[in-house]
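CHAIN AND CONFORMATION:
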Amino acid sequence: MNVDWVEAGPEDRTFLRALFDERRGAMFAALPGEMQESLLEMQWRAREAGYRQVRPFARWLVVRADGERAGELVLDESGPIHIVDFAIAPQARRRGIGTAVLQRLQGIAEERNQFLTLEVEPESAARSLYARLGFVEIGASEVHVAMSWSPDSGTKSPNHT
């Protein structure tokens, strides 16, 4: 399977919004449809504005598997490479796509001799994937666990030795 990413464009908005709704919709599931849609739209816009304020150099990317949209990657490479947000669509999960993206990012970090960092929700299933790939916890708050991977960690990307 070929996994890559491309810059997100206007044609990707529907896919990215659906992925966002899938991740956040449960919060509002008990609300009437119109109210739920309104709150999700506000959350969607607030997330983008927040990311742009905190990470002005971040790039919005669409993860693809064999040319098909499979996820979202928001990436800031203005310093150490930071994964601002990362999600794989439900229908594309458990196929190694997330692992392939992370290993490719580890290879890029290794080539640049930079850290690769991210934050993850404490209950997220992805946390074990990050640990398996050599990310270590470097801090925590009530809402996020900060994790980092270093080229010197001894856990190397299989695609970059």
Remarks:
- The chain has a mean pLDDT of 91.
- The radius of gyration is 16 Å.
- The longest strand covers residues 68-76.
- Residues 123 and 144 are 9 Å apart (CA to CA).
